[in-house]
Amino acid sequence: DTKLPLILTGDFNAAGGTNQAYKILTDDGFFSDTWVAAKQRKNEDLNSFNGFKAIERKSIRIDWILTRGEFTVDSTEIVPLSRDGQFPSDHFPVVTKLRFGAAR
After folding, report:
1. Is residue 48 within 8 Å of residue 90, measured between CB atoms?
2. Which residue of 14, 74, 84, 90 could cross-link 19, Cys pair, CB 3.0 to 4.6 Å?
3. How do residues 5-38 score in pLDDT, each as one tens digit?
């Protein structure tokens, strides 16, 4: 068991909070989901996957940022990037502001 901090990010193609893979990674506090731990969340109702189509508001987040170790998660958000109805990716960025160390 190491005390080194670890950040795991990815397109897991599974809904955070409800999928078995998510449960395996986060049960017993092995990893913490920054979305859950954040003091502030923005665009909670957005899906992180858009499929190059219209924005859906079903709160399905298949892109996760997980941490292990002492972190303070200040904020997290799903960023709905598009220009003239065009998306640069089939996923919206999920961004987290975090700091090393426990909350003070």
Report:
1. no
2. 14
3. 999 999 999 999 889 999 999 999 899 999 999 9
